[in-house]
Amino acid sequence: MISLSKEPIQPEEILSFLKKKICFKEICQEILQQQIVDRVAQEKGIAVTPEEIQTEAEHTRREKHLEKASDTLAWLAEQMITPEDWEAGIRDRLITQKLAEDLLSKEVEKYFAQNRLDFDQVLLYQIVVPYEKIAYELFYQIEEQEISFYEAAHLYDLDERRRHQCGYEGILHRWSLKPDVAAVVFSSSPGEITRPLKTEQGYHIFLVEEFMAAELTPQLTEEIRQTMFLEWQNSELNYLLYNQS
To answer: Are 171 and 121 in contact (CB under 8 A)?
Structure first.
């Protein structure tokens, strides 16, 4: 039973609130997904030791600057959970991580090899304006060096963030770009501005600063593993729900 005031919040009130907020199905699915993880992990003999839980708890305490035991207890009380709840959550996360590694470690490299082009990256700048006429005027002015790309982005881009950053969009994977945009961007050369491209956002002028060939870094390995594991979870959940219907 939870209480934020003199009046306790009953479990049925929490249940009713989740339903009213249309969150109930999502929570149920997450519970079922954890049950699937626990079942498969048990079948594979995957377990988490108290020492591993303690190590992860210590890591969290350092991150949150909880130097004393009393600080940790105060933080847990603020979150309205017990130390046992916290350790159970850590255990679930570690079990999920171990199972993902067990199921998919050999599959990540294969997935990367099959989709390598999608993981190529580009350091990209762009200008987006609402009208074709403005886009072409800017394009020719930049071509003729009457104005720099960065100045034009600072003055005319629709997006406030890009205006402040003179058109800087960031380092992006090919897969994160829409196909028509990716085709234009990855067929251009570094330092070259592209002719205006129309999308639902407006008219885009792109400038590539640098292309970066895909590498299977530890960070990318983890991102791919998480994506594949989520797909596995959804597949297992759909199979479970289908066979119960």
So the answer is: yes
Q: Each residue of 89-110: b (16+ CB within 10 Å) or e?
A: ebbeebbbbbbbeebbeeebee
pTM: 0.68
Query: What's the one-letter identity of residue 204?
Result: H
At residue 217, φ and ψ (nearest 5 deg) are: -80, 165
Within 45-119, residue ranges assigned H as helices are 50-63, 69-78, 83-114
Residue 108 CB partners (closer than 8 Å, separation 6+): 216, 221, 224, 225, 228
Instruction: Give residue-wise pLDDT tens across range 50-65.
Output: 999 999 999 999 999 9
Q: What does R_g of the chain's alpha carbons equal in angstroms?
A: 25
The full set of domains in the chain, from first to last, is 38-114+220-244 (no CATH), 121-212 (3.10.50.40)
